[in-house]
Every structure is written in structure tokens, then in C-alpha cells.
Design brief:
single chain; 84 residues; mainly alpha; 4 helices; 0% strand
Length: 84
Amino acid sequence: MPTLYDISSELAHSFVRAKNKKHAVNHLIIEINSLRYQDSKKLIDYNVKAAIVSLVKSTLPAESSEALLFYKAETFILKRLREQ
């Protein structure tokens, strides 16, 4: 099972590589909302989702254009994750 760091690292790389950042944000939300606990198969709770977003943010190159775009989208991402 991948760790939270592995998941967030892959999502960060996906965000950086994406040409359309709006689409990348939506993809990130869908990916995080589809994660489940391995044992119970229940969807992960919001605190874990928020931790993944925080790890993605810390994985992005500091002061890069991707980091700045992600910081601007972070509130939107967390709001959407809370709704699920």
C-alpha cells in the first residue's frame, strides 16, 4: 500500500506536469476523494485528505509558478474535499 507521502508526491508531480492547471486541480480532487482505507475499504476522512493536500503543497518547488497556483487553489480544493 502506498504511503501518504507516495500519494502526495505522485499528485504533486502530476500537477507540475499538467499543462491545464484547472484540470489538474479537478483531477487531484477526484483522486483524493477516491482514496479508501485498505482494511475497511471506507473512504478516507477529511483530516487525511487535508494532510495529503498539505504534503502536495510541501512537495512542490518553493516559489515556483506551480506552487503559487496551488496555493491559490488550496482553499477551493479543501472546500471540495470537505463536501464529499
